Amino acid sequence: MDFLHKVLGFLPDFNIYIYAIITLIVPIIIMKIKTLLTGAMNQPGTSKQKESTLEMTCDLSENVSVINEVLGENNDIITREFFINDSRASIIFTRGLVDTAIINNNILDPLMFNTIDDERIPYSLKEILPVSECHEETDIHTIISYILRGETALLHEKSTKAIILKGSFRIDCCYFDHP
Asked: Which of 18, 74, 109, 156 has the most CB atoms within 10 Å of its CB?
């Protein structure tokens, strides 16, 4: 018994053990929780990532509806549907930021009045348009950002990609009379 009291006398109180454990374990637990939460936000399929990417489909009506829904009711966003041969297409642009003469002469006329091989429509649209620059996009949010910057989006029912047409913007809308 005497030996046991001597051994226990050298050991600190039980409270000191608890404080030591809490001091060491709590920061480790906090780091693990932060790691788990950060990892969960970056995982594919989380709601944050679904919100940031919205891909186009082959359904032209659905794509146009989604774009109009994201933009809300906005009288400055113009959507024109037309036919290329027997297939439907649509252009979307911002009124006041694009030159409608360029839209009519350089986009609509070549698409509506030229015969395009139906098998090559999604691929040949970029080739026949006399615009300064164009590229393809699949993310609807990215397409909308281009539309809001004054570029024109061309959507086709046989394609899951929109063609962004640069060079259709109005030059006079970009200058200010006063500094």
From this structure: 156
